[in-house]
Design brief:
The structure is a single chain. The protein has two domains: 334 residues, Tachylectin-2, Chain A (5 Propeller); 144 residues, Jelly Rolls (Sandwich), CATH 2.60.120.560. The protein is 3% helix and 49% strand. The chain has one helix and 32 strands. The chain starts with 6 loop residues before the first helix and ends with a strand. The structure holds beta-D-fructofuranose (FRU). Beta-D-fructofuranose binds next to strand 1, strand 5, strand 9, strand 13 and strand 17.
């Protein structure tokens, strides 16, 4: 006798149906999109049984946010992804209001444990609440624990919220027990990141508060991650409602706090704070530790404010960023696209030490699937402004302008084809160092990720520009020397 299909069975059947109808033609080449419908945060980013796994916040039934599921894809190179069946659907009392963001960690017995936020819907007398749940499985099918939610608000000291309590990032400590950072909100300290520990992933105890926004860097902090890197301890958070200050723009942002951590005392000593990404579309970073020791970060290549206005041109909506290798240099968190990208290079076009003045096209340099590095040598020149136009045709372009005298880069997609009055421009610090300034652009059809000075600052943005706008031009206000290296991607 066949049993009634569960909500997850129904989603999986819907996915199979959709997969047959959908063409892969218009998808980005190496940025993950949801199989169908809506996607936001990366979840459960891990290396498990020989493959990278990436789960994601997913609403398969529309291109807008809705009851949250976990979508799933696997990859061997972090760039070419194969869809897996939906991993989690909101189908138990503990998560009926949605399976919100979380992480994945391999257990000692080899199984994979998903740790996620279960949302309990509002009742007549209650607001919606959030608590932490686990589901354990073989990398494709996961069974939710009957003990869910395994971490409730009651596990926390007084003063923490049961309404803003989400996004657990778990890992296994050296002694084989589990740790987790999770976001909460406290009246005075506001966005707060809490540390918990567990012998088995089911029974958790509160260890302490790692850091808090105190209203300086937004209110609620979402999607924390916490790891050691190159002698520092790094805390990543995604704040809501930031005020614009220094290098931080207003609204939803991404912040890296670097410092040191004394685990025994649960004391994080914050030394510096920096934006993770300066672009128009980047949020909710999550990292994994690759088998070769690399700390690799991925983020949602979007923004809660502007996604509402973004065109829905495909049966799917939203993309992940390129996965990035992290390192700390001179106290700064630096990023580089994963080295696996080289396998997508279809050739090399090089122009070395050439002089640019009036708007110029360089032979062989064009396209919307491109890994392009431009190195500018402005020192013995009167050049104060260097302008790169990409995704260009007679009526469109995206401008990357270096205001060398001010040490500033302006990213401007206002002429990139948008019909919406949303923010299209960012101003970012960009200084000439050791005689040069480097701009590495990864273009993948509808997006640009710009790595300034080998990843000192990163600017990630979607562009709505028609695909046949594929010209690239270089211009300066006085003759300047540059080198350019381009690799078409395929
Ligand atoms: C961040 C976020 C998370 C939450 C999820 C819901 O983008 O708001 O805090 O878990 O999205 O989809």
């Amino acid at each position: 006798m066949s049993k009634n299909p569960t909500p997850l069975d129904r989603v999986r059947a819907f996915e199979r149906e959709q997969a047959m109808k959908l063409s892969s033609g218009e998808r980005p080449l190496f940025h993950l999109t949801p199989l169908v419908g809506w996607m936001n945060d990366p979840n459960g980013f891990c290396f498990y049984q020989g493959k990278y796994h990436l789960f994601y916040q997913y609403h398969p039934f529309s291109r807008d946010w809705g009851p949250m599921h976990w979508g799933h894809a696997v990859s061997e190179d972090l760039l070419r992804w194969t869809y897996q069946p939906c991993a989690l659907a909101p189908d138990t009392a503990a998560d009926a209001g949605g399976c919100f963001s979380g992480s994945a960690v391999q257990m000692k017995d080899g199984r994979l444990m998903l740790v996620y936020t279960g949302v309990q819907p509002a009742g007549t007398f209650r607001r919606e609440t959030q608590a932490q749940c686990v589901a354990i499985g073989d990398g494709m099918n996961f069974e939710k624990s009957l003990l869910n939610p395994v971490i409730r608000h009651a596990h926390l000291p007084e003063g923490y919220s049961e309404f803003d309590f989400r996004d657990p990032k778990a890992w296994m400590a050296e002694d084989g027990t589990f740790r987790m950072v999770v976001a909460n909100r406290q009246k005075e300290r506001q966005g707060s990141i809490l540390l918990l520990s567990s012998p088995d992933g089911l029974e958790w105890s509160f260890r302490g508060e790692i850091d808090a926004s105190r209203g300086e860097y937004g209110r609620m902090w979402e999607c924390p991650d916490f790891f050691p890197l190159d002698g520092k301890q790094v805390l990543l958070v995604s704040p809501q409602e930031m005020h614009a200050r220094e290098e931080f723009h207003a609204g939803y942002g991404t912040v890296a706090l670097l410092g040191s951590f004394d685990e025994k005392e649960c004391a994080f000593a914050r030394e510096s704070v920096q934006p993770v990404d300066h672009g128009l579309n980047y949020y909710a970073s999550q990292t994994l530790l690759a088998p070769d020791g690399r700390r690799i970060m991925i983020g949602w290549m979007d923004n809660w404010e502007t996604c509402k206005e973004a065109p829905r041109r495909h049966p799917w909506y939203a993309q992940m960023s390129v996965p990035r290798e992290l390192r700390v240099e001179d106290g700064r968190l630096m990023q580089r696209p994963v080295r696996e990208i080289k396998a997508l290079w279809q050739g090399t076009v090089r122009h070395e030490n050439i002089e640019i003045y009036e708007e110029t096209q360089l032979p062989g340099i064009r396209g919307r699937l491109l890994d392009l590095t431009v190195t500018l040598f402005p020192e013995s020149s009167a050049c104060r402004r260097f302008t790169l136009h990409v995704a260009k045709d007679a009526s469109h372009y995206v401008q990357i302008r270096c205001e060398l005298a001010r040490g500033e880069l302006v990213f401007d997609r206002s002429h990139g084809g948008s019909h919406r009055d949303i923010v299209h421009t960012r101003h970012i610090r960009a200084n000439v160092k050791h005689g040069h300034l480097t701009l590495r652009l990864l273009m993948d059809r509808e997006s640009i990720e710009l790595f300034i000075n080998d990843g000192e600052r990163v600017v990630t943005s979607l562009i709505p520009t028609p695909m046949d706008a594929d010209g690239i031009t270089f211009a300066a206000d006085a003759p300047v020397t540059l080198s350019a290296e381009a690799h078409p991607l395929g």
